[in-house]
Design brief:
The protein is built from five helices and two strands; from the N terminus they run αββαααα. It is mostly helical. It has one domain: 2-Layer Sandwich (Alpha-Beta Plaits). It has a two-stranded antiparallel ribbon. The radius of gyration is 15 Å and the shape is globular.
């Protein structure tokens, strides 16, 4: 997904989250992954929220022909809680994704994250 398409999908996600009463502070669409910071409502599970975002955005991307081929998200996702004291740090991290990935690929960052935080991955990657 190119940068212009990413901006269109980003705007869609913001508007969709408002319609679903999910507060989205920030998101950024990378070519191979998405970062978003939301305040998860108590009536939704993480899985339900991700199904809503993935399903509605896939439908939007295909209906509006944002990319030339049929689009679908990958199966997995990762979700992490963030303490109030770290919100600004996470917002800055998401905001600076373009610059960040000039230095480190998604795969490199992912492996480093898993190693740094001793993350035990369950399921398929």
């Amino acid at each position: 997904m190119n940068e212009q398409a990413g901006k269109i999908v980003s705007e869609f996600l913001f508007n969709y989250s408002k319609d679903k009463n999910i507060f989205m502070k920030i998101n950024y669409i990378n070519p191979e992954h998405v970062h978003t910071l939301i305040d998860l409502p108590s009536n939704l599970t993480i899985e339900d929220a991700l199904k809503l975002f993935k399903g509605s955005s896939s439908h939007f991307i295909n209906k509006e022909k944002i990319i030339p081929d049929k689009f679908s998200w990958g199966r997995g996702y990762a979700a992490f809680s963030v303490s109030e004291s770290q919100l600004n740090k996470v917002v800055d991290y998401i905001r600076n994704q373009k610059e960040h990935h000039r230095k480190k690929s998604y795969s490199e960052e992912y492996e480093l994250f898993l190693s740094k935080y001793r993350f035990n991955f369950i399921g398929n990657r």
